[in-house]
Amino acid sequence: MPSSSKEGFTAPTGTTVEEIVGRGSVFEVAVVVSAGRRLIAKRPRPELRDNADAASAIKREAAVLTRLHDRRVPAIEASGVDDAGPFLLETLVEGPSFRSLSEATSPLPWAARAGLALRAVVLFRDLHALSDASGPLGFAHGDPSPDHLVLASVDDLDVVEVGLLDFGSASLRGMPPVGAGARGTLPYVAPELCRGEVAPSAATDRYALAVILGQLLSGRRLCKATEEAAMLLEIGDHGHDASALASLPAPVQKALASLLAFRSADRPADLDELARSLEASAAVE
After folding, report:
1. 51-65 pLDDT per residue, tens
2. Is 135 helix (H, G, I), strand (E, B) or coil?
3. SS3 sequence, 218-234?
4. 151 and 60, same structural domain?
């Protein structure tokens, strides 16, 4: 049964905890209920309740989501600080993650995988293109990973979308840079981020998405190393192994490989070619 506290997680005032759905190194995430609605509540771990970086990430996520206004990402219901520390309340974007889909015992048919990949490409393309009266919003997620992309039904409609979660490393025009050393989740990280040369951006989002989708579509890892230090060295020195994409249809392989070019200057500045190749490939089967 829902309660105001469960497994050490304290529900924000006016909500009750239904279940704990995530405990990371910095944050804890729970599904809570408020006036019959299921929401997501996020807090720093108890030992980090006074940690400045954790509080900054909470504020950053709230600031970004307040301005995105897209049904494929959470909307902010409330944010603030209470006796248990900083918290966020967000609408629930729920569904299987791309990681769970990639690791499923029975792989999805090609047309289904290509369709999911296309939806993810369209999502990032749309978010990167958002603007307001002052110009482009300059959105960058900062940490695309298979855990942050989900297959979700939204707005109680009979519509399946790809949703995006976790905006603690995101940025918009005019926001201060993410903290020093921010790079995202390995191995879904561009070489220049591994080397600490740049801050996360829409360009590094596109690179990370190409790694995620390359692995989803091919069923193969694009990085041989598995330990953090080794991954940083391998990717920083050599990039990702695009030869692992050889089994994919040639147009999709070419589009992904171009996004995975080792030098950032050699990569396309948009996701259009990848979108076209996936749309054509999904329609063939």
Report:
1. 998 999 999 999 999
2. strand
3. HCCCCCCCCCHHHHHHH
4. no
Token pair, residue 75, equals: 């909307």
User: What are the pLDDT digits (tens) for 266-279?
Assistant: 999 999 999 999 99
The domain boundary residue, chosen from 64, 91, 118? 91
Distance CA 231, CA 244 (A): 16
Give CA 97 to chain center in angstroms.
10
Alpha helices in 39-145 (DSSP H): 52-68, 98-102, 110-128
- Report the distance separating Cα 52 and Cα 46, nearest Å: 13
**127 token code pair:** 């978010």
Strand (E) or helix (H) holding 34: strand 27-34
Residue 82: how many other CB atoms lie within 10 Å: 12
Q: Structurally, how many domains does the chain consist of?
A: 2
Q: What are phi and psi of 148, to 5 degrees?
A: -100, -5
For residue 265, the domain's CATH number is 1.10.510.10
Same domain, 109 and 158: yes
CATH number for the domain spanning 10: value is 3.30.200.20
pLDDT at position 282 is: 80
Domain boundary among the residues 39, 71, 91 is at 91
Answer whether the bond into residue 74 is a cis peptide, omega within 30°: no
CA dist., res. 140 & res. 129, Å (int): 10
128 and 82 belong to one structural domain: no
- Write out the residue range of the structural domain in which residue 73 sits: 5-91
Using one digit for the tens of pLDDT, what is the confidence trace for 205-226? 999 999 999 999 999 999 999 9
